[in-house]
Automatic annotation (TrEMBL):
A family per Pfam: Zn_peptidase_2
Keywords annotated in UniProt: Membrane, Transmembrane, Transmembrane helix
Membrane-crossing residue ranges in chain numbering: 6-22, 134-159, 199-222
InterPro entries with a match to the protein in the record: Zn_peptidase_2
Protein name from the UniProt record: Zinc metallopeptidase
Length: 232
């Protein structure tokens, strides 16, 4: 049986195009919502600190980091890292991002299983990512003589694909916690809540597309492997 990889290859290209479009749309949304002042007058830093305090989290620091859309929570040193704009801004976009990253801190504090699983995978993935591309490249070049390098590369790449899918519930849950808290705490008005929800939805879509793209790429390598094996 001959495995035709062309459809999967097209899916990979399509995923790349869709990813670019979503990234563009995400930046457009955040730029738009960043121009609308928050009626509560709170900055991203103040919102983050308030959310942490409300959840009884006292060992996490809120710090500013360089760049745009570089916001993240670091469980290793327990810091909520907000991009410079989000840290100082008083907008629906800043409120959404700050609360979302604190949502990860809450997950960490409450031992959210999906976050624990993802965090446990990080050391292995950090090591794998250094040599996996070279193994896959060697596997493709050596495919006529041996399938071992390509097979090993596929196994390693499957870990990155698994990681991308494990990330999805972590991100969606953090957004859910963020939106529930800013609404309950009265941080945003109903209109601002809708903007924050929209911004977080587009941010979540970047992870969805990344997961689909990773799966499509994995299937592409698998199809090459299977096709080569059947031709032997």
């Amino acid at each position: 049986m001959y495995y035709n990889s062309s459809p999967i290859y097209l899916i990979v290209i399509l995923a790349m195009v869709v990813s670019w479009l979503i990234q563009w749309r995400l930046k457009s949304k955040f730029s738009k919502y960043a121009q609308i002042g928050l009626q509560s007058g709170l900055s991203g830093r103040q919102i983050a600190e308030l959310m942490l305090a409300d959840h009884g989290i006292t060992d996490v620091r809120v710090i500013s980091t360089e760049g745009q859309l570089t916001d993240h929570y670091n469980p290793a040193d327990k810091t909520v890292n907000l991009s410079e704009a989000v840290y100082e801004e008083r907008s629906a976009a800043a409120a959404a991002v700050a609360a979302h990253e604190c949502g990860h801190a809450v997950q960490h504090a409450t031992a959210y299983s999906a976050l624990q699983f993802r965090s446990a995978m990080v050391p292995a993935l950090s090591a794998v990512s250094k040599f996996m591309p070279w193994i896959l490249l060697a596997g493709v070049f050596m495919i006529k003589t041996t399938l071992i390098p390509l097979g090993l590369g596929i196994v390693l790449f499957s870990l990155t694909t698994l990681f991308s899918f494990v990330t999805l519930p972590v991100e969606f849950d953090a957004s859910k916690r963020a939106l529930a808290w800013i609404d309950k705490r009265g941080i945003v008005t109903p209109q601002e809540h809708a903007m924050a929800k929209d911004a977080l939805w587009w941010a979540a879509m970047t992870y969805v597309v990344a997961a689909i793209s990773s799966l499509a790429t994995l299937l592409y390598y698998v199809s090459i492997f299977m096709g080569s094996r059947d031709r032997r």
